[in-house]
Amino acid sequence: MKSVATNSPAGFQAAKPVLAIEGLTVSFDGFKAVNDLNLYVDRNEVHVVIGPNGAGKTTVLDLICGKTKSTAGSIEFEGRELTKMREYDIVRAGVGRKFQNPSIYENLTVFENLEMSYPAGRKVFGALFFKRSAQVIARVEEVAGEIFLSDFLDKQADLLSHGQKQWLEIGMLLMQDPALLMLDEPVAGMSVSERVQTAELLNRISQGRSVLVIEHDMEFVKSIAHRVTVLHQGKVLAEGSMEAVQSNPKVIEVYLGH
Amino acid sequence: MEWLSDFGAIAVMQGFNGLSVFCVLLLMALGLAIIFGQMGVINMAHGEFLTVGAYTTYVISSLTLHYVPAMQPYYFFFAIVASFFIAGALGWLVEWAMISKLYHRPLDTLLATWGLSLVMQQAFRSIFGAREVGAEMPEWIMGSWAPTAAVDIPKNGLFVMGLTFLCTATIFLMLYRSRWGLQVRATMQNRVMSRAVGINTKKVDRMTFALGCGVAGVAGAAFTTIGSTGPTAGSLYIVDTFLTVVFGGAASLVGTIASAFTIAQAQSIMEFFLSGSMAKVLTLSAVILILMLRPQGLFSIKVRK
Amino acid sequence: MKNAYESLLGGKQGAIGLLVLATLILVVFPLLLDTFRLNMVGKYLTYAFVAVGLVLCWGYGGILSLGQGIFFGVGGYCMAMFLKLEASDPESTKIQSTPGIPDFMDWNQITELPMMWQPFHSFSFALLAVIAVPTLLALIIGVAMFKRRVGDVYFSIVTQAIAAILTILIIGQQGLTGGVNGITDLKTLLGWDIRPDSSKVILYFVNAFLLLGCVLLGRFILTSKLGRLLMAMRDKEERVRFSGYDVASFKIFVFCVAAAFSAIGGAMFALQVGFMSPSFVGIVPSIEMVIFAAVGGRMSLLGAVYGTLLVSFGKTYFSESFPELWLYLMGGLFIVVVMYFPNGIAGLWETHGRKWLSRYSLGKKLFGVPEVKARVFTAKPVEKAAPRELETTP
């Protein structure tokens, strides 16, 4: 397990960020969805990326986790260059990613869903001889507790509510104990009380790891963000605390001017 | 200088040979490019729709010869049109009864249409017999055109070439310049959205599939000028045709044309040096190898998902 | 598809299902059928190897190979080459212009055994080759296709094209392969005559045991975490990939296993039937093997065996009595099964058969659905994940 950081994350600037994106560009037939982007995520930081539709937010996550290959630039994660790595190696290096629509295995139970993400038996023969040990069970139960699903372990995942599915996917990422957790619109489709619970969940799990979140819900962003980056047309428009960003005239222009 | 002109003549005829193969392949592939490329439907019975066209031509030629022999020189044009509509109507029916129930299950579509192809082959055998039949060709399509003493170009090849050009141009215009084409492309890109803006996507699917089958029928009619027709004539080409469409980049019509051209020329050039079967083995292997390097096909656009 | 497998049962049902199948092919068939018919069933059971492999790679892995005939054929050829060399000793081939080489080579004016054939003098090499060559081939195809993320449909088409290529090659290289006739007149295996009835019965049992072994191995794979991963991949490939799994390697693995199974079937075919020819390699036989699995139930290892037997019986019966009808039936079967019974016999059994049998007390005891019991997770370590969604037992 990770040692819990002692500093307050908000004002803490590590000497070296966990994730350093520099000069990142991706072009789809000439259209630059992400254009010479620089973005840094510090240790133990909850970093939220906001921006209008089509700003390139999801594409940035795609680039980090290797789903999309960059045209230029570098993504350095804990000293390793991600742009050259395979998706599964990126995950194994400690990057977890939640998709925009809850992406869970609907005909497996909650337990099995979590177990699938347990970081053992990831290779062919490992999976063939994987055993459900006491250790695995304990870990699944621990994570299930964190994501409010302790009572649903035996339930088939497609019977969960939309919000619970979102949590389940977050739980699947927690199973991997990633150093960087990336969440694409984690509270989309959630009720107000679920949003509050999710904010609490994020604040809890960001202890000892960095979290990169894409979100539209400003109330929610306010409740979790240590730092906010505004993307516009594939570039950073503004960066800073939520208050600073919200009062930035350029940001207001982009959001209201459209 | 004698050898040079001989060489030239061989090159011209060989080139023409390749062009003929190209036309045959392209005519086959056009229908598939619409059905597979645009709709994403795998129709393993595509070859049988071609056979339907060929048999239609055969029947019309026999009927003409029997009842109105005077019309014999002209029946062929009528046969092409009839092949288009009969194969198209059959396609319409198939879409209604089978394909429409299997969207979202591409692999199952593949198997079901394979079953359909077996049924159709046996139906041909029951109706027309297992032996190959040939349509009686009009005089003007027979023989060859010899611009010089050494060069000898068959007229039926020229005819097929013309027909291929016509079909390709028509489909190109329909797909990229007509309102219907716009609807097809819109539906294939975003079905829900298309429905929302008032496109009857079911009808678009059905008409598109029928059109693809109709084009296969025209290809079948054209084939009768080159060879005879048997119950399994169409199925012989199905793998080549699929590879052609896939190789070109499924959704690109230009890609299909380019890939048909490449495959046909490669095959006919290799056939000059090797046996026919080895040429085919090499061509298909090369296509597969290139596909492994470039799974999205020759012509495809990089899109943001 | 899901509903039929919602109520899939665990260990006891699996064991009973396997027992029923074992009884059928090890006891019932040998007692009821004469040697000729038994040999025929043996031939069908060699196809069942392919169908069982297809359940793994198509049913669970979601990759539809339309080229399983390739592996069946290559496995069969490897075995046939060994047997042919044994049958072509200089004594029995002394009338040839070059004694000691297979007859078809002599007919093709070949005067020396080709390099490719040399190692097949050794039985252990041949046995190894039966498994290794097809598996290696599958590995190459699999790596090339899945690492490059070729889509499902493209994969099907490409495997079909490879089957076509291989057939053309085999037919074209007459001197090397026996051409369209294949390798015929196989006589002895290490001096043991494989032609008399007594040998055929023994080979039938060897074949049956191998098949049951493959079914068991298949079940082991499917009930492991790998089996669950396959299902998860079919559903949410991206999620699996971004949970740290190399999706391609799992697909390659099941594809290789399916190929190895098919190859064993092919080798047993050559032994039992006494020849191997390109007519088992190409597009048509490959896709026929898919219909075996589809009829039996693409998600059921045992179903695949029943499906193979049923369709093959049907084919033999109809093509003997009503050859006209057979293609209609076969085609119709493809259409109807795929459109209306995607789970095949196994699915029908789950929805109807089991219920029907439960009316009788013995049937209920053996096959009855236990009181609908939510699968409660018990926190016992080292418990085989109860495979509710993994295996069905017709």
Automatic annotation (TrEMBL), chain A:
MF (Gene Ontology): ATP binding; ATP hydrolysis activity
Domain ABC transporter: 19-258
Assigned keywords, A-Z: ATP-binding, Nucleotide-binding, Transport
Coiled-coil residues: none
InterPro entries: ABC_AA/LPS_Transport, ABC_transporter-like_ATP-bd, ABC_transptr_urea_ATP-bd_UrtD, BCA_ABC_TP_C, P-loop_NTPase
Gene Ontology cellular component annotations, sorted alphabetically: plasma membrane
Domain of life: Bacteria
Cross-referenced NCBIfam families: urea_trans_UrtD
Record's protein name: ABC transporter ATP-binding protein
Organism encoding this protein: Pseudomonas turukhanskensis
UniProtKB/TrEMBL annotation, chain B:
Keywords: Amino-acid transport, Cell membrane, Membrane, Transmembrane, Transmembrane helix, Transport
Molecular function via GO: transmembrane transporter activity
Its membrane topology: Multi-pass membrane protein
Transmembrane segments: 12-37, 49-68, 74-94, 157-176, 209-230, 236-260, 272-293
InterPro entries documented for this protein: ABC_transp_permease, ABC_UrtB_bac, BCAA_transport_permease
Primary localisation category: membrane
Source domain of life: Bacteria
GO biological process: amino acid transport
NCBIfam families per record: urea_trans_UrtB
Family: Belongs to the binding-protein-dependent transport system permease family. LivHM subfamily.
Listed name of the protein: Branched-chain amino acid ABC transporter permease
Species whose genome carries this gene: Pseudomonas turukhanskensis
Native organism taxonomy: Bacteria, Pseudomonadati, Pseudomonadota, Gammaproteobacteria, Pseudomonadales
UniProtKB/TrEMBL annotation, chain C:
Pfam family, one: BPD_transp_2
Record flagged with keyword Transmembrane: yes
Taxonomic classification: Bacteria, Pseudomonadati, Pseudomonadota, Gammaproteobacteria, Pseudomonadales
Keyword Calcium found: no
Membrane topology: Multi-pass membrane protein
Subcellular location, principal: membrane
Source organism (scientific name): Pseudomonas turukhanskensis
Annotated compartments: Cell inner membrane
UniProt name for this protein: Branched-chain amino acid ABC transporter permease
Transmembrane intervals: 15-33, 45-74, 123-146, 153-172, 201-222, 243-269, 301-319, 325-349
